[in-house]
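Researcher: Let's do a round of design. I'm pasting the structure tokens now; please hold your answer until I've finished.
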């Protein structure tokens, strides 16, 4: 997967035109000994790719092009060889999309049927870059006449020996735009300080969104600390869905809480998602349960002992009629005379 330039929100306008550039020259090579440093490591391609500086000369993190359907736009890619050996780089356009976790990625050439297929380098699809040299390569973006309005994410991809470097292309086709999204599949995971809220964001509009999220919650005992509005580390492309998680360090320890996720984005996009969850400290509850069981057993034994003693005390005395009387010894008559 190509490594793409980091997105920033401040869009610097790029070059756009209604004419196609002349691509007879494979590349404009400017030999210069401005690239210091030794040979690239095994993990580095030994060359860089970025938008050529605009006018006035200023670095650009990505391409930004806009036009109406049927327009042919143009711009230039700068390739810089930072090593002492020649590099041969192949160039192409590619469709861009969001991965499941929100990262920005590009599709293979065989699967790029959208804006990536509108990009053409003409005869300059393969460029040889001499050592310590910078090559500036022009390319065009031909917007089909039937293209729908809105953003069409794409990228320019440079490849050599299996290593790829991508540069983002922000392409907007003129016409009505709609910023819309939904929040789905909200669920609470974990416990304590490690509690996280999982959710899915879906871009239902036709423009890329830079969303912000806030979390509010209420428990049985009142308000629960949530999270204030803050930017999410993702740019949500049109028609894409991403699965994200949000830390919730203020989750309660013992409560039943209902939470609301609110997501907003420039352009008026707003959506909410809801979930509820029980929070029970099972370790404490387990120890407490064992103690309660022991107390209950002790109490039951004591009650049984008292009941037995009370039963014995309340038993009636034996019935005298039921016990045979003992025969008394015969009495002798006293006459006063000795026998």
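Researcher: That's everything. Go ahead.
Model: Designed sequence:
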């Amino acid at each position: 997967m190509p490594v793409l330039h980091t997105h920033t929100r401040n869009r610097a306008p790029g070059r756009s035109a209604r004419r196609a550039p002349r691509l007879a020259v494979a590349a404009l090579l400017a030999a210069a000994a401005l690239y210091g440093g030794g040979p690239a490591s095994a993990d580095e391609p030994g060359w860089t790719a970025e938008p050529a500086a605009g006018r006035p000369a200023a670095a650009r993190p990505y391409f930004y092009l806009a036009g109406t359907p049927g327009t042919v736009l143009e711009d230039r890619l700068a390739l810089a060889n930072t090593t002492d050996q020649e590099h041969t780089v192949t160039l192409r356009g590619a469709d861009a999309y969001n991965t499941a976790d929100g990262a920005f990625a590009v599709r293979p050439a065989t699967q790029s049927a959208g804006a990536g297929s509108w990009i053409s380098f003409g005869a300059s699809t393969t460029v040889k870059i001499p050592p310590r040299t910078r090559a500036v390569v022009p390319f065009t973006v031909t917007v089909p006449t039937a293209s729908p309005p809105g953003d069409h994410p794409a990228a320019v991809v440079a490849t050599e020996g299996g290593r790829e470097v991508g540069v983002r292309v922000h392409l907007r086709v003129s016409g009505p735009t709609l910023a819309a999204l939904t929040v789905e599949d909200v669920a609470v995971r974990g416990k304590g300080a490690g509690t996280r809220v999982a959710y899915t964001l879906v871009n239902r509009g036709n423009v890329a969104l830079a969303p912000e999220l806030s979390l509010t919650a209420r428990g049985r005992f009142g308000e629960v600390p949530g999270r204030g509005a803050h930017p999410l580390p993702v740019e949500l492309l049109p028609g894409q869905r991403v699965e994200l998680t949000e830390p919730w360090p203020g989750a309660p320890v013992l409560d039943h809480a209902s939470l609301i996720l609110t997501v907003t984005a420039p352009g008026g996009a707003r959506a909410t998602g809801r979930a509820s969850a029980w929070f029970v400290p099972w370790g404490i509850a387990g120890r407490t349960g064992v103690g309660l069981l022991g107390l209950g057993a002790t109490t039951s034994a004591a009650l049984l002992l008292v009941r037995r003693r009370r039963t014995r005390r309340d038993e009636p005395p034996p019935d005298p009629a039921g016990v045979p009387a003992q025969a008394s010894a015969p009495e002798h008559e006293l006459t006063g005379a000795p026998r």
